Fold this sequence. Notes:
Layout: H1 2-16, H2 28-35, H3 39-51, E1 55-58, E2 62-65, E3 80-81, H4 94-108, H5 122-133, E4 144-147, H6 150-159, E5 168-173, H7 177-186, E6 190-196, E7 199-200, H8 202-211, E8 214-219, H9 233-246, E9 249-253, E10 277-282, E11 294-297, H10 303-314, H11 319-331, H12 333-359, E12 365-366, E13 374-378, H13 385-393, E14 397-398, E15 400-401, E16 415-419, H14 425-458
Parallel strand pairs: 3-14, 5-6, 5-8, 8-9, 9-10
Antiparallel strand pairs: 1-2, 4-11, 6-7, 10-11, 12-13, 13-16, 15-16
Amino acid sequence: MKYEHVKDDLKQRINSGAIKPGGKLPSIRELSVQWECSKNTVIRAIDELEKEHLIYSVPKSGHYVIVRSSKSEDRPEGRIDFAMAAPDPGVIPYEEIQHGLNRAVQLYGDRLFTYGDPLGSPSLREAISRHLADSQIFAGSERIGVVSGAQQALHLLASMPFPNGKSAILVEQPCYAGMLKLLNLLGVTAIGVTRTESGLDLDELERHFRNNAIKFFYTVPRFHNPLGTSLSRREKEAIASMAEKYDVYIVEDDYLADLETDGKSDPICSYDHSGRVIYIRSFSKIMLPGLRLGAAVLPQALIPLFRMYKSSSDLSTSALSQAALEIHLGSGLFQRHADMMRKRYGIRMKALQEACGRHLNEGFRLIQPAGGIFAQLELPGPLAAEELAAALRQKDVHVFPTVHCFLPSVESANGLRLGVIRTNEEEIEEGVRMIRQTADELMSPRRTNKLSRAAVTWI
Length: 459
């Protein structure tokens, strides 16, 4: 068919460098004249190239070739990093982001150098509102606050008073380590509720809601950090119902929503009928870590106070970062990059599961993640996670002990959080092999000593 000839020609020109990475394609009109075909034929060819993630569109500007960066080569040679939670520089489309920043200056130059609304620019909030609708979050732009990363939203919410007049914060155990550091810094009373790979004990959760003055319950329902697992629909509906019954707010940290593969996996916020769920979304794990952007969907009762605290924190989020995100959401580049990341991280997570199956047994156990970027590895009893992590660092293999994900008053699990966001399949295989090798080296003297003591006792 004619459109296939147009597509193949454009692809050949892209692959050969005739149209360079980041370069602009000829206009639809120019291509239709060149190929003596209709504009619809050219449009279909371009749509096919977009589906293959070779080009992207910028409204009122044209189509551009996506750049495949190799910045991951900047990492120290030989390092295997299971600990980091920031995207691999090698998968960040730097040139596209640069293009977005340039377009932001062109389109929004008049508002980039003044203080804006503390809750974010109206046009970006509308774009985020449309983006969140794909995740069954139907909130008008007036309920959305743009923040300088999801971490800022957590800081503001933990600091400000809530309408329920309560002060303690309930957190899952284990929990995102950054949240625990934040609560400790603020001197907030934190209470733990057990979460396992099977989910939450809803009876225990209800006891806390009923018996303690819980201001809000902080939860990561999707792709939990560090477990990697997700809550069921039944659990999410129950949490929303209990929040209304006991006047407890829910802070739902949905930091990896854009990596979800299950179209039926809805957030707690979608089951909220009482205005007690605060929904937080991060844009840092997909393609914009350095621009520090996130969004909070707020119940009406919290908006005035959140605005006040946000303004006192930074007056307003960077206007340039906001404009860049708006362009990436509007052009479809953000979603296309998210699609690519979802596939890439899925391949890596499968590689981690298979490597652990080959190399780790006899007391090791990988909690099977639902997706995302993290999985928790449980260690044999005699092997301390901190000791193993220190020994692995000497070999330039970096892991994250899950002891940092527990409150001091709670007995921590003896495990490691393994992340795939900064590794490739070859590094995962080698890294897991080295975890086993190093564990054997640490445990070998203990086995020898145990046998020696047994021999002395027998004699």
